[in-house]
Amino acid sequence: MSALLNFFRSEHAQRAFAEARAEGQAEGQAAKGAKNVLRVLSLRGLEATPETRERIEACKDLDLLDAWLDRAVTASRVEDLFVDG
Known about the structure:
- By secondary structure, the chain is an all-alpha fold.
- It has one domain (2-82).
- It has four helices and no strands.
- It comes from Streptomyces rapamycinicus.
């Protein structure tokens, strides 16, 4: 049992935990960004197709999600989000 505890206290394990935590936080931010893009589109009366919704929800690039959010504010069609990206 103490060998197992020593492993979890090791530098290697702590680094792995930190990386997993950071990865989880980034995924959470991306999910929130996608949700915000879809929310703005919905509030504006623009309905995303299942394919478009999947593309937005699958995106993990926070900068791209921010660009899509900016475009969602003025887009006339959902497809306008993807003009340059």
